[in-house]
């Protein structure tokens, strides 16, 4: 029987910043434990770290970096950057691991630590368990050296060229002229504020940004993917001024949308429109989409009408990706907006990439000179009654 993990959940380690397990001392030992894990394989490992806009992200990142440095790990910081941005940098620039300090869509008082391996994928459960054992061994060891609280290791502002490399990769993957689109973008006062304006500007997309002034405590506060109705209300109130609304969560690894009338379009609908378009281009491998146990039955039926099979994985984009690898699928995702495109070289859910793909589909499938309305692309999706409740334990 596989031993259950005590620190790592479905998406890294999370908790209230400053409380167990995310105390200043513990975060240091977490960094040291990852460092020990890495030096077993490579005597001179390199790690890239990034963070979201929470007030606690800086000190957590700095303490984690101190732990890594204490065992000789070379570290580089990208500063404020999206979670998939760190995954991209880890795989594209020869790092042994990528670390993200973020609690995604959680309130600002929470925070978390996500770890990617050098190939850009989230760590498998077995490796997380091994690192967790190392953490507990360090915490329980006698005569531990005291963590250096005065270290000058700093994660901000980060290296601009690292962030730019990620933005250039995203922009370089777009082969469609998106300049005709009028888009409202809710950055959730999170990590997307660091890359979305530059990315959308480079592609000449006519964009209005909302909630793009983080103050350390307003991340996800009545905005972002946890509250897609906010961008939907804004778009509806503008009465035809926008073709689509996009909203990210705090670390921008997922995106939700609204159509021109201000109706919310969730991850299930995105999977439907993306699957059909990929099928038409011959890039939907095995005519298969991987969703989760939370995906609505209406999605399964709509895909079936298009000759597409839907499989279900456990909740968590890591488990969706594992199932995609198992069956050779190139598209998968969650109702919450984590969408995984494996017809390129992405290794995790990426809200910015998802937004670009949806906009490309709207333009490609529209009449000459116009974009097809998002509502038309998912008009036959009949959603069955469904209630989802989150229970904190």
Structure write-up:
This protein is α/β, with parallel strands linked by helices and 393 residues long. The chain has 12 helices and 15 strands. The chain has a 6-stranded mixed β-sheet with strand order 1-2-6-5-3-4, with helices on both faces. A 5-stranded mixed β-sheet has the order 8-7-9-10-11, with helices on both faces. Helix 1 packs across helix 4 and helix 5 crosses helix 6. The protein is globular. The mean pLDDT is 93.
Write the layout of secondary structure elements.
Layout: E1 8-9, E2 12-16, H1 24-39, E3 46-51, H2 57-69, E4 74-80, H3 83-92, E5 97-101, E6 110-117, H4 125-140, H5 160-172, E7 182-186, H6 192-202, E8 206-210, H7 228-237, E9 244-248, E10 255-258, E11 264-265, H8 267-281, E12 288-292, H9 297-305, E13 309-313, H10 317-327, E14 331-333, E15 339-341, H11 351-364, H12 374-377
Number of strands: 15
Supply Rg.
Answer: 21 Å
Kindly state the percentage of residues in helix: 25-40%
- Unreliable spans are none
* Shape by Cα distribution: globular
Mean pLDDT: 93
How far is the first residue's CA from the last residue's CA? 23 Å
How many helix segments? 12
| Element-by-element helix/strand order | EEHEHEHEEHHEHEHEEEHEHEHEEHH
Offer a quick outline of the entry:
The chain contains 12 helices and 15 strands.
């Amino acid at each position: 029987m596989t031993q259950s993990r005590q620190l790592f959940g479905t998406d890294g380690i999370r908790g209230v910043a400053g409380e167990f397990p995310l105390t200043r001392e513990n975060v240091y030992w977490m960094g040291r434990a990852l460092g020990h894990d890495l030096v077993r394989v490579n005597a001179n490992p390199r790690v890239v770290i990034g963070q979201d806009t929470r007030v606690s992200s800086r000190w957590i990142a700095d303490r984690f970096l101190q732990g890594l440095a204490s065992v000789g790990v070379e570290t580089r910081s990208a500063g404020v950057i999206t979670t998939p941005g760190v995954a991209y940098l880890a795989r594209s620039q020869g790092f042994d691991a990528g670390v993200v300090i973020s609690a995604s869509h959680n309130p600002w008082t929470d925070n978390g630590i996500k770890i990617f391996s050098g190939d850009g994928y989230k760590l498998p459960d077995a490796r997380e368990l091994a690192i967790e054992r190392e953490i507990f061994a360090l915490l329980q060891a006698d005569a531990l050296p005291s963590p250096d609280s005065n270290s000058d290791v700093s994660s901000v502002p980060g290296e601009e060229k690292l962030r730019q490399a990620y933005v250039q990769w995203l922009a370089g993957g777009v082969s469609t002229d998106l300049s005709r689109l009028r888009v409202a973008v809710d950055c959730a006062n999170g990590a997307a504020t660091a890359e979305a304006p530059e990315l959308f500007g480079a592609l000449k997309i006519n964009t209005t940004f909302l909630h793009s002034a983080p103050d350390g405590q307003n991340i996800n506060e009545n905005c972002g993917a946890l509250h897609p109705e906010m961008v939907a209300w804004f778009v509806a109130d503008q009465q035809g001024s926008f073709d689509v609304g996009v909203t990210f969560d705090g670390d921008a690894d997922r995106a939700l949308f609204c159509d021109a009338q201000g109706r919310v379009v969730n991850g299930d609908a995105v999977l439907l429109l993306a699957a059909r378009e990929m099928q038409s281009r011959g890039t939907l491998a095995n005519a298969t989409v991987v969703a989760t146990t939370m995906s609505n039955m209406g999605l399964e039926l709509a895909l079936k009408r298009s000759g597409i099979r839907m499989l279900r994985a456990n909740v968590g984009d890591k488990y969706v990706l594992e199932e995609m690898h198992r069956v050779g699928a190139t598209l998968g995702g969650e109702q919450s907006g984590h969408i995984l495109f494996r017809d390129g070289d992405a290794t995790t859910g990426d809200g910015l990439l998802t937004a670009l793909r949806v906009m490309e589909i709207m333009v490609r499938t529209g009449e000459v000179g116009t974009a097809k309305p998002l509502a038309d692309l998912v008009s036959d999706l009949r959603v069955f009654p469904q209630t989802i409740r989150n229970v904190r334990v």
